[in-house]
Amino acid sequence: MGLLLGGPTPLPMGRVIGWELTVLGSHGMAATDYPELLSWVAEGRLPLQTLLADRAPLSLAEAAEALPRMGQQAGAGILLIDPTRA
Amino acid sequence: MRALTYERFGGPLSVSDVPEPELPADGALVRVLASGLCRSDWHGWMGHDPDIAVFPHIPGHEFAGEVVAVGSAVSGVAVGERVTAPFVYACGLCSVCRAGDGQVCPEQTQPGFTRPGSFAELVVVERAATNLIRLPAEVTFGQAAALGCRMATAFRAVVHRGQVQPGEWVVVFGCGGVGLAAIMVAAAAGARVVAVDPHPAARARAERLGAMVALPPSSDLVERLQELTGGGAHVALDCLGSPEVCRDSVLSLRGAAGRCRWACCSAGRPRCRWAA
Fold it and tell me: pLDDT tens digits, residue range B173-187?
C-alpha cells in the first residue's frame, strides 16, 4: 500500500512459506466499491474531521504556497482546497 | 477558468486563467468545490512521476463537486449532481474493469498526473458511467475530498484485501495520511490496532485515531510486536513503502495455525505514495 520506489524489494520469503503467510498488494479502489465506504462515512463510523488540518480550506493561491512544503510536512492533517475561494 | 499550474518540475506554481477542459462525449465536467492536497501532488511536482508529461500541468487528484455538464454519450447523470471520483479513471471496458477491478485498469488515466487535475475550477471525469460516484446527502464535499486516495486505499486494504475481523490484531507501519486512515478504518472494523512511526507527533495522532498503542521503530521492534499481539498480528500494513518496513511487516505477522494472515505491501502501478 505504501509505494516502493527504486526497484525490486527483498522479502523474508522463508517466513512467508514456513508460516504460510499471504502477501497482498493494494492500490486505490474502484468506483463500484465506494458506496460501502461512503455508507461508513454517512453513518459516522469514520471520524474524518479528526484527519483534517485545523484551518479553513485554502484558496488556489494559498495552495500554490503550500504544495512545495508537502515534502517535509508530517502529521499536520489533511489540507483542503476550495477553488471557488478568491 | 482559474487553475494552479506549473511549467516544469520543481518550477514556480502559479494561479492563472487557463482554457476550460474539453468535455469528451463519454465524460462529465465537474465544478470542483473541495480538493485534497496530497503528498503525491508534491511527488508529481518534484518530477518523481513519469506520467506527468504535458505542461503547463494542473495537479490535484482528490476532489468532490457538482456536475456542470455531461458528454453527449452519457446517460443517467444529471447536471447539479453531487459527485466524486477515484484517482484512477478506469476505462470500464477491458477485462480487468469488467471483473470489477477498475483500480488497476491497464488503460487507466489519472487526474493530476496523466491528465489535468482538480486544482482548478473545473475538472473532467472521463468515462463518467464508470468513474462518477454519487455522494450520499450526509457526506459533505469536504469529507468526500478528504477521503481521497488515502481513505479509499486504506479502506480497500483493510476491509477488502486484509478482511480484518473484530478483535484481530492489526499493525500499521507509518502514520502518514494513508497510515492514519488505515488506523481509523481498522479501529472502526473492531480490530486492535498497533501503530509504528518514528515521529512522536504522528504516534500521538495515531493513538487519538484509535490505535491502542503506538511504538517507535527499534532494533527489537519485531519481537515487541510479536509479544504485544500475543504471537503476531493477523494483518500488517506497510503504509510507508520501504524495504525495511516491508520486511518487518512480514515478520510481525502470526503463523497460519488458525487462519489466514496478510501483509499488504505495494504492488502494481504505483501512484499514491503515502499521502500527507
Answer: 998 888 999 999 999
Distance, in angstroms, between B58 CA and closest chain A CA? 11
Q: Mean pLDDT, to the nearest integer, of B6-26?
A: 97
B247 touches chain A (CB under 8 A): yes
Using one digit for the tens of pLDDT, what is the confidence trace for B94-126? 999 999 999 889 999 999 999 999 999 999 999
Per domain, the residue ranges of chain A are: 13-71
Q: Which domains does chain B have, with CATH numbers?
A: 2-139 (3.90.180.10), 149-264 (3.40.50.720)
Q: How many CB pairs under 8 A join A and B?
A: 296
**pLDDT mean over A67-80:** 80
Residue type at position A77: G
Is some CB atom of chain B closer than 8 A to the CB atom of A56? no
pLDDT over 90 (residue B73) = yes
B58 contacts on A by Cβ (under 8 Å) = none
Tell if the CB–CB gap between A76 and B276 is shorter than 8 Å: yes
Q: Which tens digit of pLDDT belongs to each residue from B231-264?
A: 999 999 988 878 888 889 889 998 864 444 544 4
| B18 interfacial to chain A (CB closer than 8 Å) | no
Sign of CA dihedral B212, A22, B180, B204: positive
3-state secondary structure B123-187: EEECCHHHHCEECCCCCCHHHHHHHHHHHHHHHHHHHHHCCCCCCCEEEEECCCHHHHHHHHHHH
